């Protein structure tokens, strides 16, 4: 039977635990999560284990990255199941603070991010989001003091924002992006997939199929604007409300008129009440 990882909920307990993990100069990797763990999260844990001797997983549903109309209250919280999955992967420590630990009554600081956080993608529709992400991730890096932090490429703009922040603030953490994990029909794994009705779940893989077709067209030299217009129409015809379908430079996230350097297709669309995001390389 796998050993259950230690769960700590206070900063003093966290610091004692991480000091113990670092004995004999062991490297520490952090996998930040909001829980409701699925195979995509487990792939991040495996990436972390390949890069460090000890692995810490944080589970914290961060209120600072939810707008008032979003799903903070209903976001799935499954700590018992999450702990069992992490035990199977041999995780060393779970950091599971309450909101009052992360944001005490006197808390008055927020990280202000630019660069990839203002690329006109997620920030157009969730202007609060990256400030909340950057603030909590900066705190997690300060609290855990990892050598490496692993983030999934599904939230590609977030990955770029966190990477820039760690570099700009000299936080001493190497941020690693891990490939997107997908269901057999191509749908990107996400904790929010549980919100999909059976009919919506059947439709959801359209996003991946359209991205693959559009990427193929772009690699064949088709005009970017035309390819994106065709793809956008296919997505809306399938029943989605499209927020964006964009071709962006893979490093800067700047819009591209021609694919002459590494690029990424990024999409966000709502089906029913569920908002899905995804991306692929061109």
Strand order of the main beta sheet, please?
Answer: 1-4-3-2-5-6
Q: Tally the structural domains.
A: 2
Query: Which sheet architecture does the biggest sheet show?
Result: 6 strands, parallel
Number of helices: 10
Please tell me what the overall shape is.
Answer: globular
**Superfamily (CATH H level) name of the largest domain:** HUPs
Radius of gyration: 19 Å
End-to-end distance: 43 Å
Beta-strand fraction estimate: 15-25%
Provide the residue-averaged pLDDT. Answer: 96
Indicate the low-confidence ranges by residue numbers.
none
CATH architecture classification of the largest domain: 3-Layer(aba) Sandwich
Q: Enter the CATH topology name of the largest domain.
A: Rossmann fold
What is the share of helical residues? Answer: 25-40%
Number of strands: 9
CATH class of the largest domain: Alpha Beta
Structural class: alpha/beta
Order of helices and strands: EHEHEHEHHHEHEHHHEEE
Provide an overview of this structure.
By secondary structure, the chain is an alpha/beta fold. The protein folds into two domains: 6-178, HUPs (Rossmann fold); 191-281, 2-Layer Sandwich (Pantoate--beta-alanine Ligase, Chain: A,domain 2), CATH 3.30.1300. It has ten helices and nine strands. It has helices spanning 11-21, 39-51, 79-88, 99-102, 122-125, 129-144, 156-168, 198-203, 206-219, 224-237; strands spanning 6-8, 28-33, 54-59, 93-95, 148-152, 174-178, 241-249, 263-271, 274-281. It has a six-stranded parallel beta sheet, with helices on both faces. It has a three-stranded antiparallel beta sheet with strand order 7-8-9, with helices on one face. α6 (129-144) packs across α7 (156-168) and α9 packs antiparallel against α10 (224-237). The chain is globular and about 55 Å long. The mean pLDDT is 96.
